[in-house]
Amino acid sequence: MVIFTINELAMESKKPLPSSLAALQHYLAEIQLSEVASKLVTLWRQNKTDVLATFIEQELSKIQDDSSAKTVVIQELKNLQLLLQSEKTSRFKVTNQAGYILLVSSNAVNRLKICRILEPQGHHILIAKSQEQGIDAVVRQHAELVLLDADDEDDALSTLTAFKQHKTLKHLPILILSQTPNTEIAAEFIQQGATDVISPPYSGPLFSARIASALQVSHRREDDLSQGKAARRRHRQMHLIAERYLNSEVVNQMLDNPKQSELGGELREVSLLMCDMRGFTQITEKLAPQDVVALLNVYLGKMTEVVHQHGGIVNEFEGDSLLALFNAPIQLHEHTVAALTCAVNMQRAMSEVNARLTELNLPEISIGIGVVRGEVVVGNMGSERRMKYGVVGSPVNLSARLQSVANGGEIVALASQLSEGAGGARILRTGFVSPKGFSRDVEVAILVAP
Length: 450
Fold this sequence. Notes:
This protein is an alpha/beta fold. It contains 15 helices and 13 strands. The strands form 2 sheets. Strands 6, 7, 8, 9, 10, 11, 12 and 13 form an 8-stranded mixed beta sheet that branches. The protein has a 5-stranded parallel beta sheet with strand order 2-1-3-4-5, sandwiched between helices.
């Protein structure tokens, strides 16, 4: 039989001895237990982790009964035991995702035991001795998982209920550490919202796997919440941007029905409103470019607001002109009356526009408006890469011709289309005009806001 000394075994081993085992060689020799040290080193070198763990338990029991044993030997054996547990469970830890775990326990021994197991795996442990401390710890700090010691079952149930009723903590996974396994008690914890109930031993692959699994669930939920918040922020931003071009009802309808954003058109009866500044060319000749932009922003901004208030959309800006559309893309009952009412309120709003322009030392302005009802093609036009919601048809051209004959403060509409009402406007006169590009004269009504 070949006998190796401890030093020879250590030199032969490719696996370096941990500091606790190196220290044990010396201290075990002092109490005449060199053979124990030799076996510890041999089992370590052969990677017989389970056998080594059992052997350490046996020797701890013997040495603790021996009054001549030094305290340091017991401590170093426990350190070696803890190292084995750490190595054994390391393959179960969440890769690059060491968890932030709250341990709620009034039992100091249990707290120390759990910390010794989880901290070597890279987890960050927050300690709370009571329900109040636990909630405060999570609110003030960051925890992804709660371990709740059920040493006192009634207290643990109360703490679990408090967590599940808390607005911001109710979704945290909670694992119950129950010293006395009982199916009925475990079922009650689960019914009250616990993720799982774990019984001793609080070590080994199964325990670590449960911790890792609960943390993964928590991480996935945090990712989902984060992505959900980002999506809601993005949705809100898109909504706000879209509302600069469409009223909120149109935006909501198009977001609820994405097919409305596909290319294509449909034939629909709509009412069109065209408004335009009077004397814009002469005004721009007297103003600096930045003042022209400021003037247009005040005027067009207020006009857009009025259009949206009456259920229309601003389909086009062209210089000082604005084209509004009623009854598309959303349907409006009595859309011609809505367009005429809008025109009346646009004229009324010019007093507010001019008051603001005076504050900016800009000239006062007036507008003419034309309103027409007719069948047009409306829909998304352009290409897949760039499109706009457009309108095509002779009524578009006619609305432009009618506004061109309106003086400042006037609204021009087809006389035949006022049967449903004039939207609160007062009729100044009626007459015939010859719109450019049209083959015959049309009868119109000249309206003003009362």
